[in-house]
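In pairs, describe these two lines:
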Amino acid sequence: MCHPLSILLISEDVWIYNIITPHLSLLDIHHLQFTNKWFYQLVSKTNKYSEYKSIISLLRSQLNINFYKNTSIYESFLCFNEEIFELYIETCPDKYKYLKHVLSGRYALYIGSSIIHKFSDKLEQLIEEYPKALSLVFPIYRTQLSKVFKKLFNQEQYVFEYLFNDTIKFSDISEELRNSQPFLLKIIKLFNLKFLNQFDNKFYDDYEIISEAIKREPYTYYLASKRLKDDKNILLGLFSNKQISSTMIRKAVTEMPKEYYSDMDIMSLAIRKDPGSLKYASCYIQDNRDIILSSVKKQPICFTYASNRLKEDREIALEALSNASNTGVQLQGLLAAVSANLLFEREFIMDLLDKDPSFFKYIPSYELIDDREVVLKAIRKNGYLLYYASSEMKNNKEIVSTAVDVDGEALMYASSELKDDKEIVLKAVRNNGKALLEASERLKQDEEVILEALKSNVSYISFASKRFKQDQHLMNHIFTLYPEAKNFLE
C-alpha cells in the first residue's frame, strides 16, 4: 500500500513540492504511475524558469540516480523545455553516457544549441561513434555543428552515408575531399550524376571523371572541356553509349575536329547510331560498301551520300529504293541519285518492281514502260499503274485485262478501243461496278454490262446511258430486280 503522501503527487499545484520535500524520501519512488503523472502535471503548469529550477533541484536531491535510470521520466523532460534538459544534463552523474544514449536515439532532435556548445568536445567523439545521429542533429543545428563535424566531413565513410540520406549538402564536404579525383569518381559511381554539376570546373577537364560520367549519361559530354570534347576516346565512349540520341550524335559530329571525318572507328560508330552522320564523312568513308549498305537499310536517304561508284551498286540501290516507301522518303530524290545506267537496265527495274511496283511510275525509259513483261509485273499488284504504261500497252488486251482484273476502275486508262470491248468492260464492272462510268457509250446501254455493275451498287444505274434510261421496257426489268434503283434516277 502506498504512503498517504503519494496521493499528493497527482496534485496540479506547483507549490506542492514545498510541502512534500521533507517527506519525499519516505515515498515509494517505484510507483511510477503516480510519480510520472505528478511530474507531467507539475511541469505542464509551470511557466517560470525559477520554478523549473526548483523542480530540478528537488528531484536532483531526492531521487538521485534512480531518476536517471527511468526512461519515461527523462523522456518527459525532453518533451517540455530545453532549459529543463540543460539543467538536468548539468547534474547528470555520467554526462558522456547519457549524451551517447540521447544521440543514438530519437532524443537527438531535442538537443538545444546551448547543449551543443557546452558539450562540443563530447559531441565530436559521440558522433564519430554514432554517425547516424548526425542525420537527426545536423539539419537542425547546421551552424553550431559545422565546426564540430568538420573532421567527419573529411572522412569518406561518413560523407557517403550522409549524402545518401540527404543529411548534408555537397558543399558541406571538406575541400580536401571535393578536390580529390578518386573521391569524386566514387561519388559518380555511387550517386550517378547527382552532384556532377557541383564539381570544380577543373574536373571537367579530367579524362576519368568525364569518361565515367558519359557512361551514365551522354549529355554530360557538354560539360567537358574543349580538349576532352575533341578527344578520340571520349568521342568513342560517347558514340558507344546505348542511351545517346541520333540528334546528339549529329551535333557532336558537326562540332568535332574535321580530321575525324576520315576516322573509321569514330565515323562507323556514329553512322551506326545515326546514319545521317554519313553526310559529314570523308569520301573514303562514303566509298565503304559495308557502311553504305548498312546505312541505307536504316535511312534510305543515306544513299545520296554514297560515292558515285556505290551509286551504281545494284544491291545498295535496290535496298535504298525498296526501303524508301516504308520510311516516307521522297523517291524522286533517291532516284535522282541512282546511276542512270541502273535506271535504264531492264533486270534492275524488274527486281525493283518485285520489291515495290509503285516504282513503275518513275521509270525514265520509254522502252521499259512499253515492255510487256515489265508492265505486267507492275499492274499485277496495282492496276492503276496502267496510267504510266505506253500507249501501245494501254491498247494491249492482255495488259488491260490484267489491270481491270486487279482494279476495275483502271479501265479509265485503257484505250478507247478497249473501253468498247465488252469482255474487258464486263471484267472491270465485275471487279468494281463504278467502272461502268469509264465504259464506251455503246456498252453503257448494254443490259448485261449494266446488270453486272448494279451487283456492286444499285446507285451505279446513274452511269447508264441516257438512251438506256429512256427505254421503258429495259428500266422496268431493272426496277423488278432492283426496286430501289428508282431513287438514283434524275
Remarks:
- Residues 49-69 form the longest helix (21 residues).
- The two ends are 118 Å apart (CA to CA).
